[in-house]
Each structure stands twice: as C-alpha cells, then as structure tokens.
Please model this.
Amino acid sequence: MTMNDGYTIPEVQFGTYQIRGGAGLQQVMEAIKQGYRGLDTATNYDNEGMVGEAIRRSGMPRAHFFVTSKLPGKYHQYDEATMAIQETLYRLGLDYLDLYLIHWPLPKRNHYVEAFQAMIDAQKRGLIRSIGVSNFEPEHLDRLINETGVTPAVNQIEVHPYWNNERMVNEDQKRGIVTEAWSPLGRGSAALKEPVIQDLAKKYDKNAAQIILRWHSQRGVIPVPRSSNLVHQKSNKDIFDFKLTDQEIQAINQLSKPDGRVDGQDPNEYEEFE
Ligand SMILES: NC(=O)c1ccc[n+]([C@@H]2O[C@H](COP(=O)([O-])OP(=O)(O)OC[C@H]3O[C@@H](n4cnc5c(N)ncnc54)[C@H](OP(=O)(O)O)[C@@H]3O)[C@@H](O)[C@H]2O)c1
Model:
C-alpha cells in the first residue's frame, strides 16, 4: 500500500508486543523466515534490541525490512522526543526507521504536537522515513495537521471484530491516513469462535484468523497480528487468495459492541507514562 508521503508499507505486519528475550528472538527470526518484512515494535515493549538482532541475524539487507517503533508518553517534549528517536535507533542498531509513531496522544498532558514536530525534524535529518501516530482521535489529528502543516502517514488504532472502529477508519481515510489495526485478532479472543467467522472459514477453506485478517484488508486496514506459533505466523500471512463479499464484511462488522475494546483503553483517557 502507498502512503501519503509516497513510501510503501507492507499489507500485513508482524506484532511483537510481549515477544522478548532469547525465545522472542527465535520467534521473530521464524516470522522473518515465513516472509514477514514489516516488524512492529515500541520502546514500551522493551524489545527493540531483540528486533534489531533478528534483522541482523536474518542475513538479509536492512532495506528489505519495514521497521516501526513508537514514542512513549514520557518523552513527548521536543528535546526528549529527539533523544528518544536516537536511542531507539541505537537499540535497534539501525540508522533509520521506516515508520515512527506517537504511541498514545495523552491529550491531558498536551505535548503531542511538539513530539510530532521533533519527528518532522528527525525525518528531515534522515532518521525516520514515514511519521505517524497511534490511538489518535480526529481532534488530535487535526491539531497536528493545522499546527505543523504535516499529515501523519499512519494512525495505528484498535480494530477487531468486537471493535470495528468504523468511525476512526473513516476519519483516517478522509484525511488520507493509512489505518493499521492493533490487536487485529482481538488478542486471540472469542471473536475467533464466533459462528459468523467459523461459517466463513468453512466456506473459504481458511481458518478463523484468516477470515478476520482478510476482513481488515478488504476494509483498507493493515493488520498487525502477533503470534509465537509458527503455524499461526504462516497462515496469518496467507490471506490474499480469496475474497469476502460485501455482505460478509458487513456481517463481521455487526459483531462490534460498545464495550468491545480488549482492555477498555480510551485514547482520550489512557496514559502510558512510566
Ligand atoms: N499501538 C498500540 O497502542 C498497540 C496496542 C496493542 C498492540 N499493538 C501492536 O499490535 C500487535 C498485535 O496486537 P496484540 O498482540 O495485542 O494481539 P493480536 O495480534 O490480536 O492477538 C495475539 C494473540 O492471538 C493469537 N493468535 C495469533 N494468530 C492466531 C491464529 N492464527 N489462530 C489463533 N490464535 C492466534 C496469539 O497466540 P499464538 O502466539 O499462540 O499464536 C496471541 O495470543 C502487537 O503485538 C503490537 O505490535 C499496538
């Protein structure tokens, strides 16, 4: 998929939340062998070093990868953000990031605009290719656009069958921002067992996760599934040889519920700040 800054982004990425240490290294190396090139990490996941190590041990050129990391809330102030970007690159052992996101807006602290300005300046210095955000609401997006003149390339938000987030997917689309889905499988939740999903899995001879990931993709959303299981890693990528009908996409949309968020994290309230 092509982003609003002209760079391309892989249509399925690999999530690394809670994948850490030596065991995590083996899992990410396996994911790379399965063909994943988009690797999604964050300073808050405490695994940027491991992700960089997996890239090096793959023996493949760095340019073959699309590496994303995220700025924690405690570093939103301009100078802190500038240093956080540099420290992330040292930990990863890379000299640029493909995509860097503000992890959460923390609107009550009100420093996300200067964080974005630091990212724009790091982009000009070649440290980041594409700059984006995560968990941003329309008013946060508009402040960034109005105050810096730059539209984020990506907004990574919670999307899964119990929280289809239609509102934000449309808001991103209106502004030319690519939506990425975090917890695209609802964190392996009961959604996988929903009869609608199970019936479609039978119809298309796919598994439940593939149906959900294809639903994301046909909505124009890039899923970032995580798996420590090699069989799951492989099948989660194999979603492009069948097509759901519009009615089937709507049927999955209907599973959404008002309290469907995996952890109840409201972007206007939630503060990851250690
Ligand atoms: N920006 C943000 O604020 C934010 C927040 C949360 C997450 N994220 C990112 O999004 C990524 C994904 O979200 P997530 O890790 O919360 O959840 P997820 O990808 O929705 O779900 C992961 C769970 O699903 C299971 N699973 C994966 N493939 C499966 C399959 N084919 N069949 C059955 N179960 C399967 C995994 O178990 P197995 O290991 O056994 O396969 C794991 O327990 C994260 O890793 C992180 O990179 C970002």
